[in-house]
Amino acid sequence: MADRTYEILTDRVKYPDDQEITLVSGEKVTVKEFRDGLMPKSDFTKQSETWAKKERDLQANVEGLNGQLAAAIQAREAAAAALNGRAAPVTPEGGYTEDQLLNDPVLGPMMKGLKAATERLQSHEERIKMHEDTWLKNQYTGQLANLEGRWNARFNEDGKGVPFDKKGFLDRVIETGTTNLDLAFDAFSRPAEIERVTKEAEARGVERGKAARVPVVPIGRRSVRPRPEGIKDGDTVSSITDDQVLGDEEMQAALRGELPNEGRG
Questions:
Q1: Is the pTM above the cut of 0.85?
Q2: pLDDT tens-digit map of 136-155
Q3: Residues above pLDDT 90, as percent of the chain
């Protein structure tokens, strides 16, 4: 489809509006729907300006015909009043019905022209509304498809994760009144993103723990600090160390308050 996109958009003879084509997703659309969906916003703006000008022209035509009809009615009423000797023209109670105006030999053609102009204006307004709705729908549909792709690429890449909740997302958009879908998506996906980042950090920590070198201690054996040697003959108070004092059995007994064996009776 990608290599035929430009041809479909530009060749209206080979691809008329009512021709049906199949998208990559399998969805079937008309060429017109496809073109409308890819219409750039700038082109849509230009088209909208053209529609608005035509609407103003139609509106001016309706107002002009309406003014002409009103003036003709007033002239007739004034002539009738003068003919009957009345000071002011008299309008029938409740005004004139549409049928009365249409069937009048003088006012009828003017009324028919006004009615046709009004119908053209209404039809034009309906077409504008339809085109705007179609364009907006296509824009939002395209954005939703892109956001769904972003979600699945991050949170459901293998199809075993969390699928995109389109209804939940749109409910959030409506609830918050957000018109920017990208900002709404960032807020909607934040809890899932936090959970994903947390799991990734935990996984990295486990891998680092596995890769760390841990010293092996043989089972049943314990590393014991070697006992310092005791006081030797010839050592003086100034030459002995604390370790030597603590390593001498007699000094340890003395520190515990025990008397030497020789002194016990």
A1: no
A2: 667 677 788 888 999 999 99
A3: 15
Instruction: Look at the block and give the residue holding tokens 């001016």.
Output: 60
Full DSSP string of 126-155: HHHHHHHHHHHHHHHHHHHHHHHHHHHHHH
Show Cβ contacts of residue 66 under 8 Å, excluding neighbours closer than 6 positions: 114
157-168 confidence digits (pLDDT tens): 888 899 999 888
Q: What is the DSSP letter of 88?
A: S
Tokens standing for residue 252: 């340890």
Name the pLDDT band for 116 (thresholds 50, 70, 90): very high
pLDDT of residue 202: 87
Alpha carbons 191 and 158: distance in angstroms, whole number: 20
CA 12 to CA 20: how far, in whole Å? 13
Cβ–Cβ under 8 Å, residues 251 and 231: yes
Q: How far is CA 146 from CA 150, 164, 182, 208, in A?
A: 6, 11, 10, 36
Spatial distance between the Cα atoms of 25 and 241, rounded to a whole number of angstroms: 87
Q: Exposure pattern of 203-215 as b/e (b: 16+ CB <10 Å)? A: eeeeeeeeeeeee
pLDDT of residue 75 exceeding 50, the answer is yes
Classify residue 16 as exposed, middle or buried by CB count within 10 Å of its CB (0-12, 13-18, 19+). exposed
